[in-house]
Write a structure and sequence with these properties.
Elements (H helix, E strand, L loop, with lengths): L2 H5 L5 E5 L8 E3 L9 E4 L12 H6 L4 E4 L10 E4 L2 H12 L8 E6 L4 H14 L4 E4 L3 E4 L2 E4 L9 H13 L4 E5 L2 H5 L10 E4 L7 H4 L2 H13 L15 E5 L5 H5 L5 E7 L2 H4 L6 E11 L2 E9 L8 E7 L6 H14 L4 H10 L8 E2 L7 E5 L4 H14 L6 E5 L8 H13 L2 E4 L9 H14 L8 E3 L3 H11 L5 E5 L6 E4 L2 E4 L2 H12 L18
Parallel strand pairs: 2-3, 3-4, 4-5, 6-10, 6-11, 7-10, 11-12, 12-13, 13-14, 18-22, 19-20, 19-22, 20-21
Antiparallel strand pairs: 1-5, 7-8, 8-9, 14-15, 15-16, 17-18, 23-24
Length: 535
């Protein structure tokens, strides 16, 4: 496709230098990915400025360059735009033929629960006989193929998002479920996507290192709902633009003020449920039972239009943790907005037995329950520990292993310490992607919150920098009826020290510790980190 053709999709063009009637083979914002015939898009990043790499991109064969700074003397066409990140999104969509316009696109955002909700909705759509695709934190599913989507990034960059969507379109997908983060929205990774249904799980304390303030973080999430409006998201036949909102979350009033053709809401039955406007379809949960066998609850549906049937359904899910009730309702509301009936919704919910790294049980024949969960925010840790408490036997303890990432929201460190102090019986503070920060200093901040809450170091909590040793200590302390829960890494397969990603998997680390504690023959720990990383 020619550059001249895809430029017609890009707003904010300031000037064009050179002949843009050049064919393009690919698009990238990293000069190291440039090959002959590719388009290089330069913008100011967090750690580097892409404009500094324009010459490198040209030397590698870039056919043209798009950037924000006035630039002269290039041997290839140059297009100056007011926002190169946004341009990258539109250019990527255009290069792949705007694939999201040929499918129904449901996007899920929120602080916690996005991946579980996305998987639930995907399985519901499959149960309804829909040809569905999925792009989530864990993977991308295209037809019957499963593709890894990365290490620490929930929403891939714009070219990758559009490439995956194009593959799904070409594979015959009717509807795609896309997990979106505040970073992905604010950095225009999903700009150019034609959204039809926007879902929020919740908005709590997270990513303030990037957004600066909670209000900015919330506004980044709100971009998803603002993107529902044409012309950015053209309306597709038979599919109204629908917002799915959580009545029980503090963001409800803020997001409700953003116009949408339809609004579906969900929440616990009660006063807020009674106040739902009659024009909105509302889902309400009651009579919740949560145990080791899963979740059971009653779901009442009050329709806001003729496309939804009223009724009350008994929901059964193999997922554990009462917090998953909200995730199930969010996915169900989105499914109803997509025209799926409740029979298929119930089947899809029952089929979602396990989401990698989300309350995932590791069973090696031990006498206690061992779980891996992605909880890496204060709210998610609170919900995970409450779920663990509900799973513990009478008199059983909750033993948690967790850390806080470096170069991320520092306020979380004390908040997560406060959560552990309130709910856990024993906390092991350890490494979780310290990056270039001092690991000991990170642990000090979390430990300080535990001490202020009255917890005693050496009795109620310990600092164990080596994550494998922390997990092993937890396994050795546990006895019958206890719950050991390892939080923070979930599905991830690496841990970052300095600028290096070292292989890591909580599931494998926990399984090794459980086998060793049971006296089974094991070799060296599955992951050995350089000693200097743990000092």
């Amino acid at each position: 496709m020619q550059l001249a053709t895809i430029l017609t999709s890009v707003p904010g063009i300031l000037s064009i230098t050179g002949n843009v009637a050049v064919p393009l083979t690919a698009i990238a914002s990293d000069s190291r990915q440039i090959r002959a015939g590719a388009l290089f898009v330069a913008y100011r990043g967090v750690g580097a400025d892409g404009h500094d790499f324009i010459q490198d991109a040209v030397a590698r064969g870039a056919a043209a360059v798009v950037g924000e700074r006035p630039t002269a003397g290039l041997p290839v066409p140059y297009v100056q735009v007011d926002d190169a990140r946004a341009a990258l999104g539109w250019l990527s969509a255009a290069l792949y033929g705007h694939p999201s316009r040929d499918m129904i696109l449901a996007a899920i955002t929120g602080t916690d629960g996005k991946t579980t909700t996305a998987n639930l909705l995907f399985n519901i759509l499959r149960a309804a006989g829909k040809r569905a695709g999925l792009i989530s934190t864990v993977n991308a599913i295209i037809g019957d193929e499963v593709h890894d989507t990365g290490l620490h990034t929930t929403t891939p960059d714009a070219p990758e998002v559009q490439r995956l969507l194009a593959q799904m379109r070409d594979a015959g997908s009717e509807v795609v479920v896309l997990e979106t983060t505040s970073h992905g929205l604010a950095q225009h990774r999903v700009t150019g996507c034609a959204f039809d249904v926007a879902v929020v799980t919740n908005i709590t304390h997270e990513h303030l290192d990037f957004h600066g303030a909670f209000e900015a973080y919330r506004e980044a999430k709100a971009l998803l709902f603002r993107h529902l409006a044409p012309p950015e998201s053209p309306r597709k036949p038979g599919q109204p633009k629908t917002a799915v909102l959580n009545r029980d979350d503090a963001s409800f009033a803020f997001l409700s003020a953003i116009p949408a053709e339809r609004t579906f809401t969900y929440g616990m039955a009660g006063e807020q449920d009674a106040q739902t406007p009659m024009a909105q379809t509302a889902l309400a949960a009651s009579n919740i039972r949560d145990d080791a066998n899963g979740i059971r609850f009653d779901l009442k549906v009050n329709p806001g239009d003729a496309s939804v049937i009223a009724g009350c359904w008994a929901i059964a899910s193999p997922l554990t943790g009462a917090f998953n009730v909200a995730n199930i309702m969010a996915a169900t509301a989105a499914a109803l907005a997509l025209g799926v009936d409740m029979k298929a919704a119930c089947a899809g919910i029952a089929a979602t037995e396990r989401v990698p790294g989300r309350m995932e049980r590791i069973d090696r024949g031990q006498a206690f329950l061992a779980i891996v969960d992605f909880a890496h925010t204060p709210n998610a840790l609170m919900r995970a520990l409450h779920a663990a408490r509900a799973l513990a036997m009478p008199g059983g303890r909750v033993i948690v292993v967790f850390g806080c990432a470096g170069l991320r929201d520092r306020q979380k460190r004390r908040l997560m310490g406060q959560v552990a102090a309130r709910i856990a019986d024993l906390s092991l503070l350890t490494a979780e992607d310290p990056r270039t920060e001092d690991l000991g200093a990170i642990l000090d901040e979390t430990a300080g919150a535990l001490i202020e809450a009255g917890r005693v170091e050496g009795e109620d909590f310990l600092r164990v920098p080596d994550r494998q040793r922390a997990i092993l200590y937890a396994a050795r302390q546990a006895r019958q009826g206890d719950v050991v829960i390892v939080c923070g890494k979930g599905h991830e397969r690496s841990m970052c020290f300095g600028a290096t990603e070292y292989p890591w998997c909580d599931q494998d680390a926990l399984a090794w510790a459980l086998d060793l504690e049971r006296g089974l023959p094991v070799g060296e720990p599955p992951f050995i980190l350089p000693t200097r990383c743990l000092e």
